[in-house]
Protein backbone atom coordinates (compact mmCIF):
# COMPACT_ATOMS: atom_id res chain seq x y z
CA UNK A 1 0.00 0.00 0.00
CA UNK A 2 2.85 2.41 0.82
CA UNK A 3 4.51 1.82 -2.56
CA UNK A 4 1.18 2.38 -4.29
CA UNK A 5 0.75 5.66 -2.41
CA UNK A 6 4.20 6.83 -3.52
CA UNK A 7 3.39 5.87 -7.11
CA UNK A 8 0.23 7.98 -6.96
CA UNK A 9 2.18 10.95 -5.58
CA UNK A 10 4.69 10.65 -8.41
CA UNK A 11 2.03 10.21 -11.11
CA UNK A 12 -0.05 13.18 -9.96
CA UNK A 13 2.86 15.63 -9.83
CA UNK A 14 3.82 17.56 -12.95
CA UNK A 15 7.48 18.11 -12.11
CA UNK A 16 8.62 14.52 -12.87
CA UNK A 17 7.20 14.69 -16.40
CA UNK A 18 8.76 18.06 -17.14
CA UNK A 19 12.02 16.88 -15.60
CA UNK A 20 12.15 13.78 -17.79
CA UNK A 21 11.28 15.84 -20.87
CA UNK A 22 14.14 18.25 -20.17
CA UNK A 23 16.60 15.45 -19.55
CA UNK A 24 15.59 13.70 -22.78
CA UNK A 25 16.17 16.87 -24.80
CA UNK A 26 19.60 17.48 -23.25
CA UNK A 27 20.74 13.86 -23.52
CA UNK A 28 19.60 13.28 -27.09
CA UNK A 29 20.85 16.70 -28.16
CA UNK A 30 24.33 15.87 -26.92
CA UNK A 31 24.10 12.44 -28.54
CA UNK A 32 23.27 14.04 -31.89
CA UNK A 33 26.26 16.36 -31.59
CA UNK A 34 28.52 13.44 -30.69
CA UNK A 35 27.26 11.46 -33.66
CA UNK A 36 28.00 14.25 -36.13
CA UNK A 37 31.44 14.94 -34.68
CA UNK A 38 32.30 11.25 -34.36
CA UNK A 39 31.46 10.59 -37.98
CA UNK A 40 34.08 13.14 -38.96
CA UNK A 41 36.88 11.72 -36.82
CA UNK A 42 36.64 8.49 -34.82
CA UNK A 43 33.65 6.32 -33.89
CA UNK A 44 31.86 6.99 -30.60
CA UNK A 45 31.89 4.10 -28.12
CA UNK A 46 28.63 3.12 -26.34
CA UNK A 47 29.76 4.59 -23.01
CA UNK A 48 30.70 7.87 -24.67
CA UNK A 49 27.37 7.98 -26.48
CA UNK A 50 25.70 7.86 -23.06
CA UNK A 51 27.67 10.81 -21.67
CA UNK A 52 24.62 13.07 -21.76
CA UNK A 53 22.52 10.58 -19.80
CA UNK A 54 25.17 10.02 -17.15
CA UNK A 55 26.17 13.68 -16.89
CA UNK A 56 22.77 15.38 -17.09
CA UNK A 57 20.11 12.71 -16.75
CA UNK A 58 21.18 10.76 -13.68
CA UNK A 59 21.98 13.79 -11.48
CA UNK A 60 18.62 15.38 -12.34
CA UNK A 61 16.76 12.15 -11.57
CA UNK A 62 18.65 11.94 -8.28
CA UNK A 63 17.54 15.45 -7.40
CA UNK A 64 13.98 14.49 -8.24
CA UNK A 65 14.27 11.51 -5.88
CA UNK A 66 15.57 13.72 -3.08
CA UNK A 67 12.78 16.25 -3.61
CA UNK A 68 10.20 13.50 -3.11
CA UNK A 69 11.35 13.55 0.51
CA UNK A 70 12.30 17.17 1.13
CA UNK A 71 9.12 18.40 -0.55
CA UNK A 72 7.01 16.62 2.04
CA UNK A 73 9.09 18.05 4.87
CA UNK A 74 8.75 21.55 3.39
CA UNK A 75 4.96 21.39 3.11
CA UNK A 76 4.41 19.42 6.31
CA UNK A 77 2.79 16.57 4.39
CA UNK A 78 5.31 14.19 5.93
CA UNK A 79 3.38 14.35 9.21
CA UNK A 80 0.23 13.13 7.48
CA UNK A 81 2.24 10.42 5.76
CA UNK A 82 3.63 9.17 9.06
CA UNK A 83 0.17 9.29 10.64
CA UNK A 84 -1.23 7.17 7.81
CA UNK A 85 1.74 4.78 7.93
CA UNK A 86 3.34 4.82 11.40
CA UNK A 87 6.13 2.52 10.23
CA UNK A 88 8.57 5.19 9.03
CA UNK A 89 11.00 2.61 7.72
CA UNK A 90 8.33 1.38 5.30
CA UNK A 91 7.64 4.94 4.16
CA UNK A 92 11.26 5.74 3.37
CA UNK A 93 11.84 2.34 1.79
CA UNK A 94 8.78 2.83 -0.44
CA UNK A 95 10.06 6.22 -1.56
CA UNK A 96 13.43 4.68 -2.38
CA UNK A 97 11.90 1.81 -4.36
CA UNK A 98 9.61 4.06 -6.41
CA UNK A 99 12.39 6.58 -7.07
CA UNK A 100 14.83 3.82 -8.08
CA UNK A 101 12.38 2.16 -10.48
CA UNK A 102 11.39 5.50 -12.02
CA UNK A 103 15.02 6.57 -12.49
CA UNK A 104 16.10 3.16 -13.73
CA UNK A 105 13.35 2.93 -16.34
CA UNK A 106 13.93 6.36 -17.83
CA UNK A 107 17.71 6.05 -17.68
CA UNK A 108 17.55 2.78 -19.59
CA UNK A 109 15.25 4.29 -22.21
CA UNK A 110 17.44 7.38 -22.63
CA UNK A 111 20.65 5.37 -22.84
CA UNK A 112 19.25 3.18 -25.61
CA UNK A 113 17.87 6.26 -27.39
CA UNK A 114 21.25 8.01 -27.13
CA UNK A 115 23.05 5.07 -28.71
CA UNK A 116 20.51 4.91 -31.53
CA UNK A 117 20.73 8.68 -32.06
CA UNK A 118 24.52 8.66 -32.34
CA UNK A 119 24.31 5.69 -34.71
CA UNK A 120 21.67 7.36 -36.87
CA UNK A 121 23.47 10.70 -37.13
CA UNK A 122 26.93 9.22 -37.56
CA UNK A 123 28.48 7.14 -40.30
CA UNK A 124 27.44 3.64 -41.33
CA UNK A 125 30.36 2.26 -39.33
CA UNK A 126 29.17 4.21 -36.33
CA UNK A 127 25.67 2.86 -36.69
CA UNK A 128 26.95 -0.72 -36.80
CA UNK A 129 29.05 -0.20 -33.67
CA UNK A 130 26.07 1.16 -31.73
CA UNK A 131 23.48 -1.31 -33.01
CA UNK A 132 21.37 -2.93 -30.31
CA UNK A 133 22.81 -6.29 -31.31
CA UNK A 134 26.18 -5.22 -29.90
CA UNK A 135 26.80 -6.49 -26.32
CA UNK A 136 28.76 -3.35 -25.45
CA UNK A 137 25.63 -1.24 -25.85
CA UNK A 138 23.65 -3.33 -23.39
CA UNK A 139 26.54 -3.38 -20.94
CA UNK A 140 26.46 0.42 -20.94
CA UNK A 141 22.66 0.48 -20.60
CA UNK A 142 22.79 -1.89 -17.63
CA UNK A 143 25.65 -0.02 -15.94
CA UNK A 144 24.11 3.44 -16.18
CA UNK A 145 20.67 2.14 -15.22
CA UNK A 146 22.10 0.51 -12.10
CA UNK A 147 24.00 3.71 -11.30
CA UNK A 148 20.78 5.72 -11.59
CA UNK A 149 18.88 3.33 -9.33
CA UNK A 150 21.55 3.31 -6.63
CA UNK A 151 21.96 7.07 -6.96
CA UNK A 152 18.24 7.58 -6.43
CA UNK A 153 18.31 5.51 -3.23
CA UNK A 154 21.27 7.60 -2.08
CA UNK A 155 19.35 10.77 -2.89
CA UNK A 156 16.31 9.64 -0.89
CA UNK A 157 18.58 8.93 2.07
CA UNK A 158 20.27 12.31 1.80
CA UNK A 159 16.89 14.00 1.48
CA UNK A 160 15.72 12.37 4.70
CA UNK A 161 18.91 13.43 6.49
CA UNK A 162 19.15 17.01 5.22
CA UNK A 163 15.41 17.70 4.88
CA UNK A 164 15.97 20.93 2.94
CA UNK A 165 15.69 21.02 -0.86
CA UNK A 166 18.43 23.60 -1.42
CA UNK A 167 20.84 21.74 0.82
CA UNK A 168 20.39 18.34 -0.76
CA UNK A 169 20.53 19.78 -4.29
CA UNK A 170 23.82 21.47 -3.41
CA UNK A 171 25.25 18.19 -2.13
CA UNK A 172 24.11 16.18 -5.15
CA UNK A 173 25.60 18.69 -7.61
CA UNK A 174 28.71 19.92 -5.83
CA UNK A 175 29.96 16.53 -4.66
CA UNK A 176 30.31 14.81 -8.08
CA UNK A 177 31.07 17.88 -10.19
CA UNK A 178 33.21 20.06 -7.91
CA UNK A 179 34.35 18.47 -4.65
CA UNK A 180 35.43 15.05 -5.90
CA UNK A 181 37.27 16.29 -9.03
CA UNK A 182 39.13 18.88 -6.94
CA UNK A 183 40.12 16.33 -4.29
CA UNK A 184 41.23 13.90 -6.96
CA UNK A 185 43.38 16.56 -8.62
CA UNK A 186 45.27 17.50 -5.45
CA UNK A 187 48.91 16.38 -5.50
CA UNK A 188 49.65 13.38 -3.26
CA UNK A 189 46.27 13.55 -1.52
CA UNK A 190 44.32 12.88 -4.69
CA UNK A 191 45.73 9.41 -5.34
CA UNK A 192 45.10 8.37 -1.73
CA UNK A 193 41.64 9.85 -1.30
CA UNK A 194 40.29 9.77 -4.86
CA UNK A 195 39.58 6.01 -5.08
CA UNK A 196 37.45 6.29 -1.91
CA UNK A 197 35.08 8.92 -3.28
CA UNK A 198 31.58 7.58 -4.03
CA UNK A 199 30.79 9.22 -7.37
CA UNK A 200 34.32 8.60 -8.62
CA UNK A 201 33.62 4.91 -8.12
CA UNK A 202 30.22 5.20 -9.79
CA UNK A 203 31.81 6.79 -12.84
CA UNK A 204 34.53 4.15 -12.90
CA UNK A 205 31.88 1.44 -12.94
CA UNK A 206 29.90 2.95 -15.82
CA UNK A 207 33.13 3.74 -17.71
CA UNK A 208 31.51 6.90 -19.04
CA UNK A 209 34.06 9.70 -19.69
CA UNK A 210 33.94 11.89 -16.61
CA UNK A 211 35.85 14.29 -14.39
CA UNK A 212 37.68 11.39 -12.74
CA UNK A 213 41.36 12.28 -12.32
CA UNK A 214 42.66 9.33 -10.26
CA UNK A 215 43.57 5.71 -10.85
CA UNK A 216 41.26 3.28 -9.10
CA UNK A 217 42.41 0.54 -6.74
CA UNK A 218 39.93 -1.96 -8.15
CA UNK A 219 38.05 -2.72 -11.34
CA UNK A 220 34.49 -1.79 -12.38
CA UNK A 221 32.90 -4.49 -10.20
CA UNK A 222 34.84 -3.29 -7.17
CA UNK A 223 33.77 0.28 -7.88
CA UNK A 224 30.13 -0.83 -8.07
CA UNK A 225 30.43 -2.70 -4.77
CA UNK A 226 32.01 0.33 -3.09
CA UNK A 227 29.36 2.74 -4.36
CA UNK A 228 26.59 0.34 -3.34
CA UNK A 229 28.13 0.08 0.14
CA UNK A 230 28.16 3.87 0.48
CA UNK A 231 24.52 4.01 -0.60
CA UNK A 232 23.59 1.31 1.92
CA UNK A 233 25.35 3.11 4.78
CA UNK A 234 23.77 6.48 3.99
CA UNK A 235 20.31 4.96 3.65
CA UNK A 236 20.70 3.00 6.89
CA UNK A 237 21.71 6.17 8.74
CA UNK A 238 18.70 7.94 7.21
CA UNK A 239 16.38 5.19 8.46
CA UNK A 240 17.73 5.55 11.99
CA UNK A 241 17.43 9.33 11.82
CA UNK A 242 13.87 9.28 10.48
CA UNK A 243 12.74 6.95 13.25
CA UNK A 244 14.40 8.99 15.99
CA UNK A 245 13.85 12.59 14.91
CA UNK A 246 10.50 14.36 14.79
CA UNK A 247 9.38 15.56 11.34
UniProtKB/TrEMBL annotation:
<keyword id="KW-0812">Transmembrane</keyword>
<feature type="transmembrane region" description="Helical">
    <location>
        <begin position="168"/>
        <end position="189"/>
    </location>
</feature>
<feature type="transmembrane region" description="Helical">
    <location>
        <begin position="17"/>
        <end position="37"/>
    </location>
</feature>
<feature type="transmembrane region" description="Helical">
    <location>
        <begin position="92"/>
        <end position="116"/>
    </location>
</feature>
<feature type="transmembrane region" description="Helical">
    <location>
        <begin position="136"/>
        <end position="161"/>
    </location>
</feature>
<protein>
    <submittedName>
        <fullName>ABC transporter permease</fullName>
    </submittedName>
</protein>
<keyword id="KW-1133">Transmembrane helix</keyword>
<keyword id="KW-0472">Membrane</keyword>
<feature type="transmembrane region" description="Helical">
    <location>
        <begin position="49"/>
        <end position="71"/>
    </location>
</feature>
<feature type="transmembrane region" description="Helical">
    <location>
        <begin position="217"/>
        <end position="240"/>
    </location>
</feature>
